[in-house]
Each structure stands twice: as C-alpha cells, then as structure tokens.
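Justification of computing resources. Each target in the renewal requires a structure prediction run like the one illustrated here; the chain below, 109 residues long, is used simply to show the kind of job we budget for.
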Amino acid sequence: MDPLGAFEILEIRIGRIVKAESHERARTPAYRLWVDFGSSGIRTSSAQLTDLYSAEALVGRQIVAAVNLGPRRIGGFVSDVLVLGVPDEAGRVVLLGPEREVPIGGKVF
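Resulting structure tokens:
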C-alpha cells in the first residue's frame, strides 16, 4: 500500500476533553477521558498523561485522536479512541493539539 493510502485509512479528528478523572484500575497511571467529537458524539479514552497534566487542566483542551482503531478495555474501562501525543526529552507524553481553536470533529489531513 502506498503511504498516502495508509494515512487515508486512519481517521484522525479533533476533539475537546469534556471530563477527565483518575483511572485507578489502570496498570500505569492514567486518566479516563470523555472527548466530544461534535456530530460523532462523546467518545472515551484511557490516556497516560499524569506526568504533565492534572485532570482539571485537561478539561476544555482540544486534542488530536485516532477515532477508528476500535475499542479496547483498559482496567475495566472501554477506551474507544486513541488520544495522540509525543514524548518529551524525559519520555513524558505531551498532547498533540491544534495551534488555535478549530471546530471539534474536524478531520486531520
């Protein structure tokens, strides 16, 4: 498959975190997130972001997420989107997000 074809298969969209709480049953410290994707509704994610972000600081943030990878059960919680980030120099996850406000649900291309 050509590289562009592979990218077109993966659906990446902009969401807004509307709720975040500690995910006590996760093996690695994580948050349970509820992310609004506009017309696609609110979806859930388990995300290992505790090193750099408090739950309160996450609420209201726009994020980038892969939305068509299928659900996974993590510590008893259904995570159906993958919130995207990159490691900093210490290996802590830094969230990816748009550099300015954009409509939620927007497809990344």
